[in-house]
Amino acid sequence: MKILIFGIGGVGGYFGGKLAQAGVDVTMIARGKHLEEIRSNGLEIESINGSFNVKPQLVTDNLAEVHTPNLVILGVKSWQIPEVAGQLKSIISAGTMVLPLQNGANNVEILLEILPKRNVLAGLCHIVSFVERPGKIKHVSFEPRITFGEIDNSNSERIQQLKSVFDKAGISTFNPENIQLETWKKFLFIATISGLAGLTRVSIDRIRESEYLFDLLKKTAQEIKLVANAKGIPLAEEHLEKAFEIIENQPPGTTASTQRDIMAGRPSELKNFNGFIVKEAKKLGIATPVNKMIYECLLPMEMEARKS
User: Fold this and answer.
1) What confidence score (pLDDT) does residue 235 get?
2) Per the database record, which ranges form the Ketopantoate reductase N-terminal domain (predicted)?
């Protein structure tokens, strides 16, 4: 199987590295100094499960050099999906699978606006990893897992084939009965913490220590559940409880990736998280005052980051 990893950040770098280590034909799309370092010295993965270095079959910033892949794993940010999907149209075939692993609730819908339905899978992942320096990915938390499936939740032959490839690479996978519910469960957790953490600029444990902020966190989550339910997603109280168990268990100093982007003045997934909830709530006639407050307070900074 030929696999293209588009975006060698914490997610694409880790899973792409694992696939390459297993001998899979992997091509990586990277940029700038990150690209140069991987070309020269390979991709270094420092992981809580063991560190390694790999050299992919090809690493490039030019899609014209890439042969038609059987699978594309999207390791870019949610807000980058439209541009990347447009670029992929030139190299994919009818049989190419495109698997988004971004945080966000509507990545599949965004892809379907640009790519044929036959090409699009639904997916997400669980991992805390990041680019520590050019050429190096650091995995610091969570047992890495990819959750994926067909949009219609059918257990197709290509889903089984893909699972075999991930198994060979030692990547834990989950093919759920309802991929949409799994997407929203992850979205509930990440969107709940990201915006408020970006606004307060403190780690999750500091938010937990504040009765006022922790209450805002709970209200953020309840609003997300309201929107999900109105869209037909069976997000339940038990899923909120599980999300907050995870929040409660985050070690001191833990921050979310979107929060780190906001604090560093980089473009973030704000519009795909709290902004998405505000937008959908307006369509559905639902009040989401906490998400709106968080979004509107962060939006001016987001707009400045996008300009630069």
Assistant:
1) 97
2) 3-152
Instruction: Indicate whether 23 and 106 sit together in one domain.
Output: yes
pLDDT at 257: 84
What is the pTM assigned to this prediction? 0.94
Q: Where are the alpha helices (DSSP H) in 98-210?
A: 107-112, 157-168, 179-200, 204-209
Same domain flag for 152 and 14: yes
- Looking at the fold, whether 84 and 206 belong to one and the same domain comes out as no
The answer to whether the Cα torsion of 180, 129, 61, 55 is positive or negative is negative
Residue 45 C-alpha from the chain's centroid: 18
The number of CA neighbours under 13 Å toward the Cβ of 118 is 7
Contacts of 88 (CB under 8 A, 6+ apart): 6, 63, 72, 98, 115
Identify the helix (H) or strand (E) that includes residue 36. helix 32-41
Q: Is residue 134 a contact partner of residue 34, using CB atoms and an 8 Å limit?
A: yes
Nearest to 146 by CA among 18, 4, 24: 18
Rounded to the nearest 10 degrees, the angle between the axes of helix 211-230 and helix 179-200 is 150
3-state class of 265 per DSSP?
A: coil
Nearest to 121 by CA among 176, 188, 61, 59: 176
Helix segments in 169-288, DSSP class H: 179-200, 204-209, 211-230, 237-248, 257-263, 274-284
Indicate if the alpha-carbon torsion angle 74, 8, 274, 145 is positive or negative: positive
One domain for residues 24 and 73 = yes
Query: How many degrees, rounded to 5, is the angle at CA 118 between CA 64 and CA 279?
Result: 90
Task: Provide the residue range defining the domain that includes 197.
Answer: 181-307
d(CA 133, CA 101): 22
Q: Other CB atoms closer than 10 Å to residue 181's CB: what's the count?
A: 17
Residue-level pLDDT at 308 = 78
Say which CATH number the domain at 188 has.
Answer: 1.10.1040.10
Predicted pLDDT of residue 233: 97
For the chain, list residues with pLDDT below 70: none
Boundary-marking domain end, from 122, 142, 177? 177
